[in-house]
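Q: Now give one record:
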Amino acid sequence: MAAKLKMAVSIFIRVTEGLILLRLIFMFVFVPKENKLKQFVISVTEPVLAPIRKMFASSSLGKDLRIDISPFLAFLVFGIIEYAIIQLIALLS
């Protein structure tokens, strides 16, 4: 049971990180706004990235930065969350 739960958490995080990576690619490669895949990726990743972007933008470091580093911060946050959840599952099982 614990192994399946760990795998489910890992798969969920990898899929979300993959979508964020795809969104990063869309930032560097022109893809029309009307593209259905781009619209889907943005609609799925924006609820994750918007709070991170808002918190970082309100910090003193974020005010001076001209690029959006929220995807990179999201990868870091997801890594920490995944580690914490897997350790908690291991502790409880």
In short: Residues 2-92 form one domain.
